[in-house]
Write a sequence for this structure.
């Protein structure tokens, strides 16, 4: 391709959501094709929402919300087991964890063979894009099914992937076809841009979706892919940034006025907390920090194909300044982005639930310092046959999306990949631990008492 071509373009690895549910503003239609809800008519949106309608809070107390709601996992599990044995669907109160919008505390209660999760909660509603969010804050609620997926990962006794996550990448065949197409195209004719980009899309072909550590048909898996998809749309400027401090990579690179072809990069979410506070007996934990960090690396995808073929490794090249700037701004402004893009807040919730599952599992695997009374261990939740999860359609491959920028006498050529990585074991082990003697955490734990009424599974 001639360097005199005065345009910038990007290939964006896309993702998808469920056939009969909307997650993160994307969905899969009846033919299995990725769609964005903005392309739906009002009647079509209503039809999708009706197919995935959610129930309302069962009481005024649930609807009013709480600054610190508590949920007993032992009692929730018993309730879910009874419903499954009777063939009844779980009520919305249970599916949405009593309206909890953020997991802040994990309390181990060995005396009652229980674990209690706690955090702010409120009533809920469903957005036109499909997310179920708090009526006041607009933040997504926690999902019991996501917790169950996290528990199954944490408690598996079989060999498991080192992390929960997803990756969306071009296929080796697609890269070869794309490179061959570029050689045939040669110099880009500005009068035929749409035709040129359409040909590049066809040459690149479907992108491969890989999932790790989770059931590939679960809501958790769907959420991971949807979050990654929205990250790439934002990073590459396919969607305008809803936050002033975040500028996409293409525009950052253009502002620098670099004359050479810009290097290819990938972006992904990493799970990361500032600290995990705990009481001296390690029966109460507080998650501190936003839980999410955006990472990047430079990826020469043509080299990637050659490396796979020769099975050799090469030293990773330096990250471009524009890519680093984008990564820093995405991480810094993530709380604001999570307000504007609810699927990012859903990712935060899923990370928190994964950490909670790991803290619970640690008491049952290989920790000799824990007393014989290790506390609650899930049983029904771990049984995939008696505790089935809702099946979602998560595609194995997704189509590429083309976007471009006109730039003064320069061109950028970027093929994008990325993913999400949640490594609960490493996260818990590597996060700074801070013992909280006589501080707010200990006081909070003293105020958490399991209700004497056995049917009461949540309380304020």
């Amino acid at each position: 391709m001639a360097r005199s071509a005065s345009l910038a373009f990007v290939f964006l690895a896309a993702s998808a959501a469920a056939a009969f549910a909307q997650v993160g503003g994307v969905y899969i239609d009846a033919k299995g094709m990725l769609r964005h809800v903005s392309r739906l008519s009002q009647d079509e949106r209503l039809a999708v929402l009706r197919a995935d309608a959610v129930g309302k809070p069962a009481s005024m107390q649930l609807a009013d919300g709480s600054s610190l709601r508590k949920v007993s996992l032992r009692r929730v599990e018993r309730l879910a087991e009874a419903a499954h044995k009777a063939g009844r669907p779980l009520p919305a109160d249970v599916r949405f964890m009593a309206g909890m919008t953020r997991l802040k505390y994990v309390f181990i209660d060995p005396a009652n063979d229980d674990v209690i999760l706690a955090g702010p909660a409120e009533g809920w509603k469903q957005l036109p894009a499909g997310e179920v969010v708090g009526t006041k804050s607009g933040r997504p609620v926690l999902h019991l099914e996501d917790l169950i997926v996290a528990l199954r990962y944490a408690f598996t006794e079989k060999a498991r992937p080192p992390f929960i996550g997803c990756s969306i990448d071009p296929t080796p065949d697609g890269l070869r076809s794309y490179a061959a197409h570029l050689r045939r195209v040669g110099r880009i004719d500005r009068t035929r841009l749409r035709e040129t980009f359409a040909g590049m899309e066809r040459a690149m072909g479907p992108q491969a979706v890989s999932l790790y550590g989770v059931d590939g048909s679960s809501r958790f898996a769907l959420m991971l892919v949807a979050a990654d998809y929205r990250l790439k749309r934002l990073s590459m400027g396919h969607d305008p940034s809803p936050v002033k401090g975040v500028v996409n990579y293409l525009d950052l690179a253009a502002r620098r006025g670099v004359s050479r072809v810009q290097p290819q990069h990938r972006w992904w979410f990493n799970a990361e907390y500032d600290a995990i506070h705990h009481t001296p007996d390690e029966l109460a934990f507080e998650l501190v920090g936003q839980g999410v960090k955006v990472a990047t690396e430079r990826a020469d995808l043509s080299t990637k194909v050659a490396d796979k073929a020769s099975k050799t490794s090469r030293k990773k090249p330096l990250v471009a300044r524009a890519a680093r700037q984008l990564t820093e701004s995405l991480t810094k402004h993530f709380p604001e982005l999570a307000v504007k893009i609810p699927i990012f807040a859903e990712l935060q919730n899923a990370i928190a639930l994964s950490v909670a599952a790991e803290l619970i599992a640690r008491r049952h695997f290989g920790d000799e310092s824990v007393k014989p009374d290790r506390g609650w261990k899930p049983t029904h939740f771990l049984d995939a046959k008696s505790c089935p999860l809702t099946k979602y359609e998560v595609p194995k491959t997704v189509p590429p999306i083309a976007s471009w920028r006109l730039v003064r006498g320069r061109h950028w050529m970027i093929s994008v990949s990325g993913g999400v990585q949640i490594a609960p074991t490493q996260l818990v082990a590597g996060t700074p631990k801070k013992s909280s003697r006589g501080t707010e955490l200990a006081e909070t734990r003293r105020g958490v008492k399991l209700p004497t009424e056995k049917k009461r599974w949540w309380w304020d």
The radius of gyration is 23 Å.
